[in-house]
Design a protein that fits this description.
The chain is mostly helical and 152 residues long. The chain has one domain (2-151). 80% of the residues lie in helices and 0% in strands. The protein has helices spanning 2-17, 21-29, 33-68, 76-100, 103-112, 117-142. Helix 3 (33-68) crosses helix 6. The longest helix has 36 residues, at 33-68. It starts with a helix and ends in a 10-residue tail after the last helix.
């Protein structure tokens, strides 16, 4: 019983920090297909919910720290973020979050850019369902291949 609970908790916690870790852990530990998808989505969304609440505070702390160090407000990294935002909007950030960002990073980025919490939750939810299903399906279907035997 405790072993099964630890499997589920592992998938959930990995998904809340690094999205792809959830499906990989689910396949590796023998968690069912649907449970892996559900735990992956739940993990990401709990992280999104938490960091959308504290995202403004993190942003204010970061700006104060940058000003105290007399650093410029716009760096190369900031400019890239603004380019992505202007070109793709919240949908683009949500789509790229599981691939390149973490659920935490994508949520804080959206919060800093002034997106409402309800829009963040909506866009991150469809992204989590889409990418969670896609990653889990791919890993479950390809785990029999020789170079992916470590997953079983």
């Amino acid at each position: 019983m405790i072993s099964a609970v630890l499997k589920y908790v592992s998938v959930y916690l990995l998904s809340s920090v690094k999205f792809i870790g959830g499906p990989m852990a689910g396949v590796t530990m023998g968690v069912s297909f649907w449970a892996t998808i559900g735990l992956t989505v739940a993990g990401m969304m709990s992280s999104v919910f938490l960091f959308s609440l504290i995202g403004t505070a993190v942003h204010n702390w970061y700006v104060a720290r940058q000003r105290a160090k007399n650093k410029p407000m716009f760096s190369k990294k900031n400019r890239v973020i603004v380019k992505v935002w202007k070109r793709f909007g919240m949908s683009g950030i949500a789509f790229l979050t599981p691939l390149f960002l973490t659920p935490i990073g994508g949520t804080i980025m959206a919060t800093v850019l002034g997106v409402s919490k309800s829009r963040i939750m909506f866009h991150m939810l469809w992204s989590a369902v889409f990418w969670g299903s896609a990653f889990t399906f791919i890993l479950f279907e390809l785990s029999h291949l020789p170079f992916l035997q470590f997953l079983r």
